[in-house]
Amino acid sequence: MELSHSHRRTSAEPDETDRIYAEPIDPVPPFAFDRRVAQVFPDMIKRSVPGYGDIIDMIGLFARHYVRPGNRCYDLGASLGAATLAMRRNISGDGCVICAVDNSADMLERCRQNVEWDQSHTPVELVLGDAEDTEITGAGMVVLNFTLQFIPVERRQRLIRRIHDGLVPGGICILSEKLSYPENGDQQRIMTDMHLDFKRLNGYSDLEISQKRQSLENVLVSNSAAELGQMFTSAGFANHFEWFRYFTFSSFFARKAGGPEDPVGPVPGGES
Ligand code: GEK
Questions:
Q1: Ligand 1 contact via 132 beta carbon (within 6 Å)
Q2: How many A from CA of 152 to the centre of ligand 1?
């Protein structure tokens, strides 16, 4: 399989512009992944999360490098399936299955359309359910791309442990999150300001930015990088590190002990 960006598009439908918070709303309801969000989600996440497209592309490359024939892969909080398709387009080994899980029926319905539209061959199981209840087994790769931040804080460690336990030796977890900086007020303020400017640069008005921020209060709750690192360590991962950061947006790589020292990805006819 050649490396290229030619498969970057991940939606069956062209992106629809996010205008959900463009008009005044009073009171602003808590953010929910409902039908309106599902409709505009690709546009919303690209204009709101710095580096999102690059993280998706690199999830594909991690899959190419680490997923081995026969592995199961999980995309927990799959939304419209961008990470699922990135993995799918990069897995060439036989016998792999990708399990895409989301607890929003509206998001999963659009994910189903995107998976049906995509041409690559690895089977995808679509699961309408809670990431916390998903049985994880025989996993070569588990992706939580901006999902953990929506799960109650006190239950996050349990999920990270379940992911670790469900990975095969040498299997990997990619965890992307918006971070908080409790020990560095200056950094928190500067990175937050820069992120607001990033959203303005992408065409969001101050009203949209402020209403979206209100809607996410107590819905999206961030951890610090140190807290996430501690979760990986307590769960038993052999190593973990941050491979990406852009303002407050971060992505971690964590690997379970064992497996081949230097995997080169699924080589046709190679070991399982
Ligand atoms: C992407 N990963 O495009 N169980 C299952 N799904 C959940 C849960 C839960 N407990 N809580 C929230 N979700 C995607 C982007 S978006 C991130 C992920 C964002 C789902 C929720 O329905 C939504 O689809 C997703 O997690 C979070 O790579 O919008 O900032």
A1: yes
A2: 13
